[in-house]
Each structure stands twice: as C-alpha cells, then as structure tokens.
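Why should sequence recovery work at all? Because a backbone constrains its sequence more than one might expect. Tight turns favour small or flexible residues, buried strands favour hydrophobic ones, and helices have their own preferences. The token representation captures these environments compactly. In the example below, the structure is given first.
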C-alpha cells in the first residue's frame, strides 16, 4: 500500500505528464475525473498538500516545463553547431 507522500508524488507526475503531452492546463473538473479513474489525488487534496491553489500549481508546472524545454533546445543547438562545425572541418581537411 502506498503512503500519502507516494500518492502525492504519483499524482504530480501524472499531472505533469498530462500538461506536457497536451500542452494545456486541465480544469479542476477534468483533473478530478482523471484522478478518480486513476486513483490519484483530487484537486482539494493536491491543493492542501502543496499549499497552493490547483490552477497556480498547474501554472507553475507549465512554466517549469517551458523552461526545461528552452534549456534543452539551447543545449541541443549548441551541440548541433559544434558538431556541424566539426563536420565541416573534417570534410574540408579530408578532401584537401
């Protein structure tokens, strides 16, 4: 049997995944339906444990996901530029 902390963590993970996949913030009614079906915490429980209202928590998660995506894009672009420059140098030196 899961303790309350594990259920909270699982609920937040599923909420985060939902926001990531759909790129939208669920309403309290939508989340409560998902929570009942999946045995996750409902919005009043999540709000009580987190100390934030459900919409504010969702906005916070959304912003965090957006920041992580931007960071990942920047890292990928830096890697790609480095790789691209290396490849050009390699091709140039190979053919000369």
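From this structural description, the recovered sequence reads:
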């Amino acid at each position: 049997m899961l303790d309350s902390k594990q259920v909270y963590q699982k609920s937040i993970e599923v909420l985060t995944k939902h926001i990531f996949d759909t790129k939208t913030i669920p309403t309290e009614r939508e989340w409560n339906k998902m929570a009942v079906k999946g045995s996750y915490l409902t919005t009043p429980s999540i709000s009580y444990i987190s100390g934030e209202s459900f919409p504010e928590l969702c906005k916070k998660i959304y912003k965090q996901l957006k920041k992580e995506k931007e960071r990942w894009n920047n890292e990928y672009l830096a890697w790609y530029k480095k790789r691209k420059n290396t490849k050009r140098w390699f091709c140039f030196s190979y053919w000369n």
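A few observations help interpret the result. The chain has a mean pLDDT of 86.
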